[in-house]
From TrEMBL:
Origin species: Nocardioides turkmenicus
Active site: D191 (nucleophile), D193 (proton donor)
Protein name: phosphoserine phosphatase
Cofactor dependency: Mg(2+)
NCBIfam families: HAD-SF-IB (TIGR01488), serB (TIGR00338)
A cellular-component GO term for this protein: cytoplasm
Biochemical pathway: Amino-acid biosynthesis; L-serine biosynthesis; L-serine from 3-phospho-D-glycerate: step 3/3
Domain ACT: 16-92
UniProt GO BP: L-serine biosynthetic process
Glycoprotein among keywords: no
Amino acid sequence: MTEEFDALERRPDTLLITLAGNDRPGLTSATLATLALAGVDVVDLEQIVLRARLVLGLLVTAPADAASTDALKHAIEETAHALDMTVEIEEGVGDTPREPADRARVTVLGLPLKAAALASVTRTIASAGGNIDRIIRLARYPVTAFDLHVSGASPDELRVTLSAEAAAQGVDIAVQPANLVRRGMRLIVMDVDSTLIDGEVIEMIAAHAGYEKEVAAVTEAAMRGELDFEESLRGRVKYLKGVPATALDEVYAGLQLNPGARTMVRTLRRLGYRFAIVSGGFSQITDRLAADLGIHYARANELEIVDGVLTGEVVGEVVDRAGKARALREFAAEIGIPEAATVAIGDGANDLDMLAAAGLGIAYNAKPAVRSAAGTAINVPYLDTIMYLLGISREEIEAADAEAGIVTPAPPLL
């Protein structure tokens, strides 16, 4: 009786079956058909295909007795042999539960992403007590992006340690808690100058007055946080006095959106996102940008124009650092979503309050002080990489465009 009891104690509750080989149609169904004949339950299942190589993992309940278990193992081995697959079968007890606490999504982007950098990142995760449960490729061009599912390490602690590692390795890393908030992000709030567009509008207008260099020097200091924003804005706007209002049309016609801007807005609008632009620039430009791109909300300063000429003054309250954060909160409240469901993107010191107020604040090609203060930094010139931080892959983006009749350039062969 004791020997029979010991045998029952040792009998596995589950079998972990792992098959690997060249992918082709019918492999998964053939494996499941063999399992069906044994009458077992599928507890867990995962499959990946990498460069036409398939790895299939199945966790199933073990049959009721040792003889049936041996028969199932033999049947699986025969099926694998017929499919020209390798197979490993491990006995286990139960299904290991996944702890809900301390789970994170770590998104790594590189241009390029070298093996040495990825090795250092994964080593840092392990040193922090994190285990990488799964890795998914989100994009292979124009940047390489991977989404790492990590358990066992605090997202807040990972964010701190990986921020330093990102700087050391020259890659971009975003760490977010693995919860429903990431999937529920529904408002994107963007700065305009040097974020949505390439360059600074006030400098472009100042060029018409012959003061581009003078204005650019003040703008640079203000974006580094060295000057009070409102004071610096009013001082710069004075240089614009006498510029004809028609110059604004010329400036708008010459604007260049940063790469990926239209793709990001187009794709996320399909998913029901709302967009807002909040700028320390001017409504005469931002309102037109919003209309052109299909952006729902816009807030910026207003240049005073009298008799068709800029007076060198702004009208009304200045949209400064605090004003940007206030706009984010007001837009979120109007939509009826929590601030945790917002994403803010900016590059200058006057964006810091807005970045801090958002559920995900992203410093985009930002000044050093902004990069160090923001929770997440993107330093590649493609605005649509923001979507990778939301778990959206390049393949999904292009598939949606193809359905809408939008043709994207073919990726380079690798």
